[in-house]
Structures are given as C-alpha cells and as structure tokens.
Amino acid sequence: MTRIELPGTGDLEVVQVHTPGLGDNSYVLRSGGELAVVDPQRDLDRIEAVLQQLGGRLVAVLETHVHNDYVSGGPALAARHGAAYGVPADAGHTVAHTALSDGDEVSVGAVRLRALHTPGHTPHHISYAIVDGDGTHGVFTGGSVLVGACGRTDLISPEQTEGLTRSQYRSAQRIAALGEPAAIAPTHGAGSFCAASAASADTWSTVARERTRNPAYLAVGEDEFVRGQLSGLLAYPAYYSQMAALNRRGLEAWEAGPVAMLSPADVEQRQSQGEVVVDGRSRGAFAAGHIPGSVNIELDVQFGTYIGWLLPFGAPVVLVLDPGQDPGEAVRQCARIGIESIVGVLEGGIAAWTASGRRTSTYATTDVDGLHRALEVGSGSGLDVRQDAEWTAGHVPGARHLHVADLPGRVEELRDMAAPVYVYCRTGHRAAIAASMLDAAGISAVHVDGGFPDWVEHGYAVSDTA
C-alpha cells in the first residue's frame, strides 16, 4: 500500500494498492468522509482493508476502461456498499452501471473526479482528474500515460491499432495540459503486458517527471510516437481474450476459502483423466524429482499469468507444492484472471507421492558455461524460449527459437533437435516451464539456470539476426 503525495490538498488522500504479478494498481481516494475506488481487482479483501483503515462512506467505484488483464471487482464492490458503479460510456457493459462521458463529474467529499475521454489503450478509455476550486491535483490515467511508458494500443484489433496509437498520443498531450503539479496515477505499470514498452519501476509519477522521460512527450511529433509504440511489442497472455466479456457482464467477488487436499491416488486418477498437474516448487527441486507429465510453473508473483497463458482457459489444475508454499496464493492469483479451476493440492507434496511408491521423473540442470561446453562439442542443441524481440536483439549462435507460450501447440516440432535440448531464457524461469513441457513430451531436456545476460557477461559469441 502506497500513499500518493498530493501537496496542499487538505484531508484528501489517495492510496495505491499494487499487484506486482500483474504490474497493476488500484486506488482508493478519500475526501471529506467519502471514498471512491478506481480500477479494483477481484480479490476485494485488500481494498476492503484500505477502506476500513481510511474510514468513511464509499460513494463511487470507477473503471478507466474494460480491462484485458484481470477481472474487475468493481461491480461486486459497488453493489456491496450501495455505491455508484461508473464506467466509460459505450464500452459495452451489461452489468448495472452508470455511463460516464467526457466532462462528467463524480463528487467525492470536497473534490470532483472529472471524466476525461482519453482513447488509445481502448477506444472508450476514460481518465479521471482530481479537481477542486484550487485546480487539478492528479489524474487516474488507467492505460493512457503510464510511468515512463504508455499503454499498448494493439489489444483491440489490427485494424484499429494505428488509429488508437494516434489517439493515445493526443490523449497524452491532453493529460500533460492538466499542469505540472498534477500526479500521474496509472493502472498499468512495470511488469504489465498492457504497457507498450518497459515502464519504470516507480508506481506513480507527476506530469513534470513524465515530460522528461515518457515517450509520448519525448517523441518528435505523432508519427515518431506511433513508430516507437508499435516497434518491439511483446506477445501478451492468451487469457487476455477472455477478460473483456467477463468484465462487461461482471463477476462476483473472490473470497478466500480452503483448498482441497488430494491423495497421491487422487492426483494420479485426475491426471489420467486429462487434468493438468502444475508443480509450483522451485525449478531445481522440480528437476530433481517430479510427477511424470507435470508442468513446472514456480509459485511466484507471475504464477497466475503463466497459468492463464499456457493452459486452456479454465482447465482443471492439480497443484504440487512444498510444505511452506501457500495454495491459497495460487488460487488467488488465478481468480484475479477469472480462473476458478484449481481442484486441489497434493497433500504432503512430492514426498507423499514418492512414499506411496509412485515413480518420479528427473532431468539435468546446468548454467551458461555448461551450455557453452555442450554446444562447442556438439553434444546437444540449444532452445531459446524468450520473446521474439528478445531473440532478435541477441541469442546463442545456432540455437532454435520458440517462445515458451507457443510450446503447448508446437512441442512436436522439436523432436528433430539433437538431444539433449538445452533450454534457456533470460533468468531461467521460462526455461524451467519449457524444460518441464519437453520432459512431459518425452524429449530429453536440460534446464539452463541463469540465462542469456549471463551468456553475454561471460563473453561468449552472440548472434543478433533471426
């Protein structure tokens, strides 16, 4: 939880609730005993805790746009508190709402939240300026002006992308015109695939700061901005295609609850029926011994993103975790993106599986020095599972490229590679996922821990053409 600095605004407070794994922010504003929430996520317990801490009556819940990267908790929060639920006009919501257009205002205590139509990230996108008699104190920019970046404009359709990018440039100029003291409070930030380029690790900013670093203000005109925004875009998670429809109709809030405990026999049966076993343990522990056919997605802040990216949306999932890991965290992350299909966790973890007499699979791990030695003598082949833009910027000579998200439908293409297949990425995280998929398909894999930056640091040769 972070308080946004708004000098000279009396009792006005703005609190930011950050979700690192998605790179997103929600906001709670308090003024004169009244509260408003902007872009809340579905796990509302975090928002409710801030509301209780600040005190006051919730009068409005507002959305800047139809979200592509998470399920909104907005409809449920508004209904729970009897507050207005404001969304951009003509954005297609069927859940009960108040449609807001450019210039509309929502009163919260002594301030007003003024809707500014700022298309770009989406056609109907709205930012909300915090205004009173003294001027504009800040603006909730959603997916428009981010910290050191702007929201991507290619999520709607290829036909609309260039037009939306031009709109994004003009929207950014409108936000800059609010004045240099104004705070910039974006929904998307570092780690979000909704950013067109790498955003700053800072989670909020000011108009003055953004004038010195944001591509919308550094570009020499609209055409240069468009070229910059549309070059080097990263692939985005497959689950994005599901979010708009869920958000337009509204889902109930997610509530924490117990996760079912499964015996080794239960897990074996469920796996035989086609359910996916996802092992959230560390990459090293997984390589040393895992349930055959399972997939290694480490339970870190990006767990939910990769579940939604790599597995069919809503596919039943069985978890394998270490005793110290929290299955509730895995369920929470998945619920944020509308996935409620984690059926249970293996009770006792992998130790219980081996104690039952069931077999495990293993594969080797190495570092970039081991990868270099193997390729130098022709003992195996290299597979780069990073994004296209990463690969083009530089890769291991002779390696094959296939982004980790493309593996589920294309792993059979790799059977002609010289074994074993050394799998690398930038840090080892995506390589661990990919190595587990190759292993599940019966392809001999070696996981390269560390990654391409280490390869470069060690002075090994680099290719920079695809």
What is the element layout, followed by pairings?
Layout: E1 2-3, E2 13-19, E3 24-31, E4 34-38, H1 45-54, E5 57-62, H2 74-81, E6 84-88, E7 98-100, E8 105-108, E9 111-117, E10 126-132, E11 135-142, H3 158-176, E12 183-186, E13 205-206, H4 207-211, H5 215-218, H6 222-229, H7 240-249, E14 261-262, H8 264-272, E15 276-279, H9 283-288, E16 295-296, H10 303-310, E17 317-320, H11 327-336, E18 342-346, H12 349-355, E19 364-366, H13 368-376, E20 381-384, H14 388-393, E21 400-401, H15 407-410, E22 421-424, H16 429-440, E23 445-448, H17 452-457
Parallel strand pairs: 4-5, 5-6, 6-7, 11-12, 14-18, 15-16, 15-17, 17-18, 19-23, 20-21, 20-22, 22-23
Antiparallel strand pairs: 1-2, 2-3, 3-4, 8-9, 9-10, 10-11, 12-13
Written overview of the protein:
This protein is α/β, with parallel strands linked by helices and 466 residues long. It folds into three domains: 2-246, Ribonuclease Z/Hydroxyacylglutathione hydrolase-like (Metallo-beta-lactamase, Chain A, 4-Layer Sandwich), CATH 3.60.15; 261-355, Oxidized Rhodanese, domain 1, CATH 3.40.250; 364-457, Oxidized Rhodanese, domain 1. Helices cover 30% and strands 22% of the residues. It has 17 helices and 23 strands. It has helices at 45-54, 74-81, 158-176, 207-211, 215-218, 222-229, 240-249, 264-272, 283-288, 303-310, 327-336, 349-355, 368-376, 388-393, 407-410, 429-440, 452-457, and strands at residues 2-3, 13-19, 24-31, 34-38, 57-62, 84-88, 98-100, 105-108, 111-117, 126-132, 135-142, 183-186, 205-206, 261-262, 276-279, 295-296, 317-320, 342-346, 364-366, 381-384, 400-401, 421-424, 445-448. It has a seven-stranded mixed β-sheet. Strands 8-9-10-11-12-13 form a six-stranded mixed β-sheet. Strands 14-18-17-15-16 form a five-stranded parallel β-sheet. Helix 3 packs across helix 6 and helix 10 packs across helix 11 (327-336). The longest helix has 19 residues, at 158-176. The radius of gyration is 24 Å and the shape is globular.
